[in-house]
Amino acid sequence: MRYERLTDIVRLAIRLQDAGGLTIDEIREEFAVSRRTAERMRRAVELAFGPLESVDWGDGRQRRRLPASGLADLIRVSADELVELETAALELQRSGREEGTSLLRDLAAKLRAFQRPAVQRQLDPDLEALMLAEGLAMRPGPRPKLEPGLLGVLREAIKANRVITFRYVSRTNGRRSRQQVEPHGLLYGRRAYLVGRRGETEAMRYWVLANMSEVGLTDKWFTHDAGFDLKAFARQSFGSFQEEPMEVVLRFRADATPDAAAFLFHPSQEISENEDGSLTVRFEAGGTLEMCWHLFTWGDSVAVEQPAELRVRLAEMCATLAEHHQTA
Questions:
Q1: For the chain, how far is it from start to end, CA to CA, in angstroms?
Q2: CB contact set of 107 (below 8 Å; sequence gap of 6+)
Q3: Residue 88 to residues 83, 95, 97, 256, 309, Cα–Cα distance (Å)
Q4: Is 313:288 a contact under the CB 8 Å cutoff?
């Protein structure tokens, strides 16, 4: 059987699962084949997926449909695939995206329910073993908490080009304000951010989702900036602070090279291993403060070779923290 004919058989099997079924004439018209070929195709579906049911619409036409269980054996879900779904759900949960977590877990439940009971019984012990082995049953750690329903409103606003309003708490000074924003996109990382502007004359900026509350759609519409590129915008900064990009050169000790080589510091990065086994990482980005926050986690295994202002800022931050904890 030709590949394209096999594809048609699978397509026909899927179409025959419609509640109303299909007549021979409908199969012939949809697949542009003769009546004889349509009959052969329908018989092939029966041989592969089981007997068809008769459907009576009261119009005297012979309709046939494939029971919902007919394709169950064609779509098999593995424990590995379900673990990957649970991993993704946990990552969303850790970033405070409870709605996304629920959607992924609902999807996993639907996929499991689609399997035959015997397959489900095989899946359960394998799934439990993998989750425990990979530490997915309980993964500790802090995470931001997002207001319920927040992501749903933001997605609706982005799709429909609707202006939104929300209350916002500034990360820098704690000031509370009421914002009216034209949303252009969402970015996810250690924190989740809304990218937008407060009007056509203003530049794009970030808002931390965890700091937003009372989000609502307005009756105002806006024109999406056709020249705005979310990926290009995100690449300008190391984190969420938009600054003039600078050339950053980091040098990691030899014992930290394996970890640093496997880490993505920035999409524009270039890495090179030195003769002494150390690793040099180069990239261009703004966001000095957030670079310092991240570099602090590498301890003394990293040295900032340039720019000088980043090295000085990191040293000042470390000195301030040391003094604080010594006197606390």
A1: 78
A2: 85
A3: 9, 11, 11, 28, 37
A4: yes
User: Phi, psi at residue 177, to the nearest 5°?
Assistant: -150, 165
What confidence tens digit (pLDDT) does each residue in 242-275 have?
567 889 999 999 988 888 887 778 777 899 999 9
Pairing state between β 63-65 and 53-55:
antiparallel
Work out the average pLDDT over 126-153. 61
Which residue type sits at 169? V
H/E stretch holding 282: strand 279-285
DSSP string for 175-218: -EEEEEEEEEEEEESSSEEEEEESSTTSPPEEEEGGGEEEEEEE
Can you say how many angstroms the Cα of residue 82 is from the centroid of all Cα atoms in its chain? 16
> CA-CA distance, 219 to 230, in Å (whole number)?
25
Q: Report the SS3 class of residue 311.
A: helix
- Does an H or E element contain 284, and which? strand 279-285
For the chain, domains (ranges, CATH) are 3-71 (1.10.10.10), 79-133 (no CATH), 150-235 (2.30.30), 246-327 (no CATH)
Residue, of 197 and 96, whose pLDDT is higher: 197
- d(CA 27, CA 273) in angstroms, rounded, equals 62
Q: Report the distance separating Cα 313 and Cα 304, nearest Å.
A: 11
One DSSP character per residue, 69-126 reads: GGGTTTS---HHHHHHHHHHHHHHHHTT-HHHHHHHHHHHHHHHHTS-HHHHHHHHHH
**Residue 161 has what DSSP assignment?**
T
Q: Are 236 and 263 within 8 A, CB to CB?
A: no
Q: Which two tokens stand for residue 70?
A: 């007919």
Q: How far apart are CA 252 and CA 279, in angstroms?
A: 5
pLDDT in tens, 276-326: 999 999 988 877 887 888 888 888 999 999 999 999 999 998 898 888 888
